[in-house]
Design brief:
Bound molecules: CU-O-CU linkage, copper (II) ion
Radius of gyration: 21 Å
CATH topology of the largest domain: Immunoglobulin-like
Helix content: under 10%
Distance between the termini: 50 Å
Shape: globular
CATH superfamily of the largest domain: Cupredoxins -  blue copper proteins
């Protein structure tokens, strides 16, 4: 059966304000399916994923967070262009929420689209134990679809005893591809079938909440159209090579028209790791079609209020990502001292950004940007690994890869870099504050691939 995300009903609603409550507690989740024992997890409101939060574009969201875990936490609103003091980064934008503590976030949601929330405190473990949820900001005039569905993909590492494998932040994971798991879930369940009806049009909001796994989905004998990346509308297009690639934290909104035959089944494959391709699930068609004439095409989403960078006037900066196994990092600065990769690995680190290894909570910016100016950042992946690089507080255009202009110059908040790849992004630094800029493979972030960009 399809795992429908349980929406949380907003309470105390004044017009223009949505209020939600998120309570962090230990819980159990039937990650492996109903016939298997439940797995101990950490949860928002007792469920994995956390509740689906829905808000209208331009509305104010107020979320009361109660921490009933035995460690500190924060909530980061991934991809939402919130004021800096609502961004949820411990010791940078707020003090962490203590065990037993309570914190209220409140901000206006400027952009419509598919976003998500998760802790920014020890994310590699807190997100890895199940703390994440989707946040959908609705357009004021929604596009015509029969169903609006969120698929949150996750990848869990479960040991022989049926528990989440420990330790989190394993040294091998830090220096390699991150914590890859052995159990894939969709909306917190091992979902094998997704029911559809012929003629149905679905807005499918894909979100990768995994610590490390990259997904590349192909919908066999279907023709999905990408309409947004990371919450931001993009020129509607067919995915390159028929595959929708999602690094950790990335989202894609698809329009999926159920064009198969009634009573038939069609697989959805994940082929990102060529030697470990598998069938994610099957689209299972009901015996009776929904309609025979498809809905008229209306694919284009209204743009969000993003400032267009002025590429002529843009100031250029280069940011290099270095380290990891099979890299050639000789020396970097860690806690103010020069270290080599061996010393880094010994300290549980493996990565550097512009020659600096992040330890603990970072404060010193690698770049200071002037408010409302345009910037072109050349990101250089000097490593043998993929990295989904995320900037807080802004969306940016992805201009080129290895010098070749991208087809859609898409807006994103997280850009997946292939090994050795160079990617140019551009943005207007229009949100003042100190913003995290880090790899969203959470073990890489833990291992030093993290920095701050300041906007003044
Ligand atoms: Cu999804 Cu720094 O966060
Ligand atoms: Cu990385």
């Amino acid at each position: 059966m399809a795992a429908a995300l349980r929406p949380l009903t907003a309470s105390g609603a004044r017009p223009g304000l949505r209020e939600y409550q998120l309570t962090l507690t230990p819980a159990e989740a039937k990650l492996l399916g109903p016939e298997h024992p439940a797995v101990p997890v950490w949860s928002y409101n007792g469920q994995v994923p956390g509740p689906l939060l829905r808000v209208r574009q331009g509305e104010r969201l107020r979320v009361v967070v109660e921490n009933r875990l035995t460690e500190e936490t924060t909530v980061h609103w991934h991809g939402l262009r919130v004021p800096n003091d609502q961004d949820g980064v411990p010791h940078l934008t707020q003090e962490p929420i203590a065990p037993g503590g309570r914190h209220v976030y409140e901000f206006v949601c400027p952009d419509a689209g598919t976003f998500w929330y998760h802790p920014h405190q020890r994310s590699h473990e807190q997100v890895g134990r199940g703390l994440y949820g989707a946040l959908v900001v609705e357009e004021s005039a929604p596009i015509a679809v029969d169903r609006d569905v969120v698929w949150i993909l996750d990848d869990w590492r479960i040991d022989r005893s049926g528990q989440l494998a420990e330790p989190f932040g394993h040294r091998h994971d830090i220096a390699h591809a991150g914590r890859l798991g052995n159990a894939i879930t969709l909306n917190g369940e091992r979902l094998l079938e997704f029911p559809v009806r012929r003629g149905e049009r679905i807005r499918l909001r894909l979100l990768n909440a995994a610590n490390a796994r990259i997904f590349a989905l192909s919908f066999l004998q279907h023709d999905p159209i990408v309409i947004a990346y990371d919450g931001q509308p993009v020129t509607p297009h067919r995915p390159e090579g028929g595959r929708i690639v999602l690094g950790p934290a990335m989202r894609a909104d698809l329009l999926l028209t159920a064009s198969g035959e009634s009573g038939q089944r069609y697989p959805v494959h994940d082929t990102f790791y060529p030697h470990a391709a598998y069938e994610l699930l099957e689209l299972v068609y009901a015996d009776v079609p929904l309609r025979d004439v498809p809905l008229p095409a209306s694919f284009e989403l209204p743009p969000n209020p993003l400032q267009e960078p002025d590429l002529q006037a843009a100031e250029r900066h280069q940011i290099r990502f270095q380290g990891g196994m099979h890299g050639e990092l000789r020396q970097a600065i860690m806690d103010g001292k020069p270290v080599d990769i061996r010393q880094m690995l010994h300290a549980g680190k493996a990565w550097a950004v512009n020659g600096v290894v992040a330890t603990g909570h970072v404060h010193e910016p690698i770049l200071t940007l002037r408010r409302n100016r345009s910037y072109l950042l050349q990101l250089v992946n000097d490593t043998a690994w993929h990295h989904p690089i995320h900037l807080h507080g802004h969306s940016f255009r992805v201009l080129s890869r290895n010098g070749v202009p991208t087809a859609h110059r898409e807006w994103r908040d997280t850009v997946l870099m292939a090994p050795r790849e160079e990617v140019e992004i551009a943005l207007v630094a229009d949100n003042p504050g100190d913003w995290m800029f880090h790899c969203h493979i959470l073990d890489h972030q833990l291992g030093g691939m993290m920095a701050v960009i300041r906007v003044v």
